TrEMBL record:
It comes from Imhoffiella purpurea. Residues 5-114 form the HIT domain. PANTHER family: HISTIDINE TRIAD HIT PROTEIN. SUPFAM superfamilies: HIT-like (SSF54197). The active site is at residue 100. A motif (Histidine triad motif) lies at residues 98-102. PROSITE patterns: HIT_1, HIT_2. InterPro entries: Histidine_triad_CS, Histidine_triad_HIT, HIT-like, HIT-like_sf. It comes from the Bacteria. GO terms for molecular function: catalytic activity. This is Histidine triad (HIT) nucleotide-binding protein.
Amino acid sequence: MSDTIFGKIASGEISADVVYEDEDLVAFRDISPQAPTHILVIPRKPIPTLNDASPEDAELLGRLLLAAAKVAQQAGIAEGGYRTVINCNAGAGQTVFHLHLHVLGGRPLQWPPG
Ligand code: DGP
């Protein structure tokens, strides 16, 4: 699958607090939450960064966003508001090179993020 920690979570080799999964996606709680609700949604496919996504990934990326909305709803933060973030490469703070979407909520979120 992939040799990143998220690839190992996707394959079940490493455990995580999984809140949603299907054939192509897994969502689990961030180990270092930056908000009361902080969930990561990943494709099982090991795409390192958003820069590496290709047109053939378009449907997968759309489903990643829809899964984010679903887990936000399940977590009870959809109405109050939440933020989705994809950090791309080190300059944006990406530390795990397996594409992932952060879903953050449960507290007021400042904009711009800084
Ligand atoms: P980023 O900085 O965008 O690459 O975000 C990586 C996030 O992944 C960071 O918020 C911490 C989280 N994380 C790192 N290792 C693990 C892990 O082993 N399990 C879980 N659940 N989250 C992890």
